[in-house]
Amino acid sequence: MGSNKLVTSIAVVLIFLPAIAMAKDITVGDDNGWKLNFDYQAWAKDKVFQVGDTLVFKYQAPNHNVYKVNGTEYQNCTKPTGNVGLTSGNDRIPLQTTGNKWYICGVKDHCAQGMKLSITVADKSSAARGIIFSGYQVFMVAIFAILAIVV
């Protein structure tokens, strides 16, 4: 009887472990970094951005920079007044709230050439709910159900 409780406890931990998403650093553009001639919208399309994650913009300073902008400034490629751009070449932006976020390069016409990023940040709990019944969890339930029957 005690071994069944142990098996059940292990199963519960393994089933929900992927749902307990850890915050992660997300390098914009992956190995390409923040540069011209790269489609950031295509790159972001299949990514999941969650509260607690950090965007990392890697680029050669002073060739580029990063400005956090609103939707209109993003569409028009306009640097916001009074907003100082990030210029380190290894800029880290923590995603602290849900919703749409917009970023542009403010150097020359880089934004107009496509050096801009639009993402939607999800709440950790809503993103976790989406993976509750992933193939991994179904597989783990089946394994532990068999173990519970055998043990």
CATH class of the largest domain: Mainly Beta
Give me the side-by-side strand order of the main sheet.
2-7-6-4
Biggest sheet descriptor = 4 strands, mixed
CATH H level, superfamily name of the largest domain: Cupredoxins -  blue copper proteins
Describe this structure in words.
- With 151 residues, the chain is of the alpha/beta class.
- The protein folds into 2 domains: 1-19 and 131-151; 23-127, Immunoglobulin-like (Sandwich), CATH 2.60.40.420.
- The protein contains 5 helices and 7 strands, in the order H-E-H-E-E-E-H-E-E-E-H-H.
- It has helices spanning 2-16, 40-45, 71-76, 124-129, 135-150; strands at residues 25-27, 49-50, 54-58, 67-69, 90-94, 99-104, 116-122.
- Strands 2-7-6-4 form a 4-stranded mixed sheet.
- Helix 1 (2-16) runs antiparallel to helix 5 (135-150).
- The longest helix is centred in the last third of the chain and has 16 residues, at 135-150.
- It is elongated, with a radius of gyration of 21 Å.
- It starts with a helix and ends with a helix.
- Residues 129-133 have low confidence and may be disordered.
